[in-house]
Amino acid sequence: MKKAVVLLSGGMDSATTLAIAHQAGFLCYALSIDYGQRHHSELQAAANIGNLIQVASHQFIKLDLTTLASSALTDPSTTLPTKEEPGEIPITYVPARNTIMLSLALAWAEVLQSYDIFIGVTAVDYSGYPDCRPDYIAAFQKMTNLATKAGREGKYFQIHAPLINCSKAAIIRKGITLGLDYSLTVSCYQADESGHACGHCNACRIRHAGFIAAGIADPTRYQEK
Amino acid sequence: MKKAVVLLSGGMDSATTLAIAHQAGFLCYALSIDYGQRHHSELQAAANIGNLIQVASHQFIKLDLTTLASSALTDPSTTLPTKEEPGEIPITYVPARNTIMLSLALAWAEVLQSYDIFIGVTAVDYSGYPDCRPDYIAAFQKMTNLATKAGREGKYFQIHAPLINCSKAAIIRKGITLGLDYSLTVSCYQADESGHACGHCNACRIRHAGFIAAGIADPTRYQEK
Questions:
Q1: Which residues of B are annotated as a binding site?
Q2: ipTM of the complex as predicted
Q3: A139 vs B62, B142, B149: nearest CB
Q4: N or C: which terminal CB in chain B sees fewer CB atoms within 10 Å?
């Protein structure tokens, strides 16, 4: 079996990506990064999803980005946005987050002699983050093949972003056909310790709209009002 | 003053790079990564050099790569090589190290609104690491401008590698003209806690040969035999 490193945040996109990689026949190595996110229950969700899909190994790397980078996602004193501003990059943007996570995945992949890295970014319904676009993924892939010993030896890394052109509804339909239990995933930027979602931050709104568009009952565990 | 983020390991190349950035008029923000390297006194050397050059800020980020990646540089049970094998990438190669470090520098740079990142890689006398080559640096720079909010807003990040075409002797001569005290720097892969060098690992050999080629007395503090 070919090995793949899969970045697993615990949200629905990365969980679906893991299910896709598993379905495609890869032996999956899940990597989750504790970067000081305020929605810490996301990491427990990642652990539960890794168990569900029976990954070969699951590593959690602690990297405190709060000393370098402030973001509404890591700073609990910031109020989270509840609507999107068209054309704006939101305050929940964490500088260079996907670049840092893909770099860590690359290090592990090279050690595992895996040449396939999966990331659940999507350029549709994506909150306007620049590091979710196809051009970015292509540029990262090109860089990896110059960065590594494996690349120099003629092995070719591929960065797979199977959801990059999918709407949230399409992601949900795909995951359901793969047997994914979305009640295990946490998308909410301010989920409580048990992973219950607030229901009104942008991540909650986009997620809930996805279930409606997919015509599937929303299994999200919401906080009691 | 324009701000620059400078990766500072505590070795002679990154120290010289910091001196060059400072001399060029940048307000320097030094970033050092504690990635579990066995030559931990390198980080104390980084602190001393940051003080000498009076950086605006110096951040130390702890990132335990030992769970993902084994390398002779992080695994104290491995015997370090004392000669180079032509054409081989040595066992001291840490997978994706420069990619991870540049990614962290990018995150900080974006927060500081700095568009200049300095790294002390060199493609000459460089021990054969793939992530020290000009093509790699160019590919990383291209990726950064797609990865970031700043890049999307038309600001352009530059990855400066001012030593990339310099021999060790040229680096040493440059640093001496900038007033750098190389006795503060630690290159040895197995320096002791006080930063005294072993004198026979590859890093020590390349460094010592550099001083000889530059015609400058080697100020390295060696361990007593």
A1: 8-18, 188, 198, 201, 204
A2: 0.87
A3: B142
A4: C
Q: For residue B184, list its beta bridge partners.
A: none
A222 at B interface, C-beta within 8 A = no
Residue B92's pLDDT band (cuts 50, 70, 90): low
Q: How far apart are CA B201 and CA B165, in angstroms?
A: 23
Segments of A78-177 assigned E as strands = 116-118, 158-160
Contact B95 A61 (CB under 8 A): no
* Residues constituting chain B: 225
pLDDT at position B72 over 80: no
| The predicted structure's pLDDT at residue A162 | 97
Q: DSSP of A108-120, one letter per residue?
A: HHHHHT--EEE--
pTM more than 0.95: no
**Per-domain boundaries in chain A:** 3-214
Residue position matching structure tokens 């160019």: B138
Q: Any CB–CB contact under 8 A between A75 and chain B?
A: no
Six-digit token string for B213: 């080629």
Cβ <8 Å between A136 and B146:
yes
Pick the CATH number of A3-214 from 3.40.50.620, 3.40.50.2300, 3.40.50.1010, 3.40.980.10: 3.40.50.620
3-state helix, strand, coil in chain B (%, to 5): 40, 10, 50
Inter-chain residue contact A130 with B146, CB threshold 8 Å: yes
A199 is written with which tokens?
A: 């229901």
DSSP code, position B108: H
Chain A contact probe: residue of B58, B97, B140 with most A CBs at under 10 A: B140
**DSSP line for B25-43:** T-EEEEEEEE---S-THHH
